[in-house]
Amino acid sequence: MRNLHTSALSGKTRAICEEIEKRLVRGFYRFGDEILANDLVKEFGASRAPVMAAMNYLRAEGYLIITPQVGCKVISPTPSEIKDFFFVFGRVEGAFAAMAAERHDEKGLGMLRLLQQQIQLHTPKKGETINETFVDLVADFHQQIYQLSHSRFEAERATKYFRMSEFFLFNSNSMNIPGGEPLEKADKERAAIVEAIAAGDADTASKLMEEHVRGKPQRAQVQHANM
Fold first, then answer.
1. What span, in angstroms and rounded, lies between the C-alpha atoms of 22 and 85?
2. pTM
3. Using DSSP, how many helices (H) and how many strands (E) does the chain show?
């Protein structure tokens, strides 16, 4: 599980923030759920100040809605808002794939190939379910493309987008969805992206990545329909 960038936080606040974010991204907290600060104070054995600081940070990141005198809830995006997010996120990831195609080094490309192969090995087959290893490998695949782009500042921004994409995809407990054809199709798409990057074909790498990212919500819907 990859934590969000909490460099602005420290100590107990940072630890609490990372744990809450993990729960958000992996679907422990779902869209619209109420999160009670008093419960977190008791659970973490902390004062109210670090708990509220963590929750306010996550509100700023877009995960939570905090209403004074009312409470805190997880956001409830509409299907249209999620579609718009992946449209924009696809453009962002496409840009990084293009930069990776133009700027990659052989060592970094070798790591990207290895990650793609590891993802294939851990892709759930029909009757199996998604696990943390598979999810983390996919995250590492995208992180490696950011590395190959040699655009550190923008990569930090993109990482936040990626975490939000995981939040949308896994919010509804989809860690329990069965594997099968949609995930195998995604493996082929990643393989094609790697080859386009290796060939230095920025236009193709960008197009393939954009289509791959935009298809993520649809693949999740297909998986849910098979449950």
1. 20
2. 0.86
3. 10, 3
Local confidence pLDDT in tens for the 227 residues of the chain = 455 555 566 788 999 999 999 999 888 899 999 999 999 999 999 999 999 999 999 999 999 999 988 999 999 999 899 999 999 999 999 999 999 999 999 999 999 999 999 999 999 887 787 888 998 999 999 999 999 999 989 998 999 999 999 999 888 555 455 556 788 899 999 999 999 999 999 999 999 999 999 998 877 664 444 43
Report the candidate in 66, 69, 57 with the shortest Cα–Cα distance to residue 20. Answer: 57
What φ, ψ does residue 140 adopt, rounded to 5°? -65, -35
Please report which helix (H) or strand (E) contains residue 162, including its range: helix 152-170
- What is the CB neighbour count within 10 angstroms for residue 18? 16
* CA angle in degrees (0–180, nearest 5) for 7-10-14: 85
What burial letters (b/e) apply to 19-45, b meaning 16+ CB within 10 Å? bbbeebbbbebebebebeeeebbeebe
